[in-house]
Amino acid sequence: MKTKKRHKKRETSPATMLAEEVAALRRDLRATVRAYAARLEIDLAESMKAVASTKGAETLARDQLHEIRELTIMLRKRKLKPEIIRDLHSVTHPGAAGGASK
Questions:
Q1: Would you list the domain boundaries of the chain?
Q2: Distances in Å between the alpha carbon of 79 and those of 19, 73, 76?
């Protein structure tokens, strides 16, 4: 007669399950932060390129000059917020999708 081998189930306490979930959350958060930082870096690089290619003030529209001045003041007084980068990108790339709304 064959006897069934019983596989011992790993005992998992609620605290162990919570610790595993916290570890998974940490992994997910780190991956999300890396992806988000990469997108912000791309936006900054694109904005720098657009700002560098901007001609003199005489060729810019009045509202563009106003936005540039506002952004300059905002960046000087900055507290590191992703919204600042999105605002900068939306001004330097007005037709781009996903820009910040005012």
A1: 14-92
A2: 34, 12, 9
